[in-house]
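Lab notebook, bench 4. Continuing the backlog of folding jobs that were queued last week. Each job is logged with the same field layout so the records can be merged later without manual cleanup. Today's entry covers ATP synthase subunit b, a 156-residue chain. Filled in by technician R.K.

JOB TYPE: sequence-to-structure
TARGET: ATP synthase subunit b
LENGTH: 156
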Amino acid sequence: MNINASLFIQWIPFAILVFVTMKFIWPPIVKALDERADKIRTGLAAADQAKAELANANKKVDEQLAQTRNETTKLLSDAEKRGAAIVDEAKKRAEDEGAKIIAAAKAEAEQQSVRAREALREQVAALAVKGAEQILQREVNASVHAELLNRLKTEL
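JOB STATUS: finished
OUTPUT FIELD FOLLOWS
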């Protein structure tokens, strides 16, 4: 056999192999590759979209955290103001109660003083009557009267 004829004969099965490959094998492979490329493109697009959504979600979270911090700060300052107001109110009530207690104590002391004066007056009156009785029972004598008055003074 001649080398040219052998080449030509080998060429025929090769051409048939190429034709069968192009007609039956190549289209499913290309289809599978195209589907795979579409899946990869879709996955990359979804990943980009997920990154954008994640960035938006992080931004919203940061905004909400800032808003929450502001609200918390406001609530704390309001609570501190309210606490200070309650303390001031309690101080005022305590001062008012203290003033009432002091006034009541002064009134009680004044009443006790009045009672003591009344009791003292009654005792002085009783002593005066007693002294007058003793003076009237004896004769009128200046030295005797002086002695009785001195006794009255010591009893007071």
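OBSERVATION: Residues 3-155 form one domain.
SIGNED: R.K.
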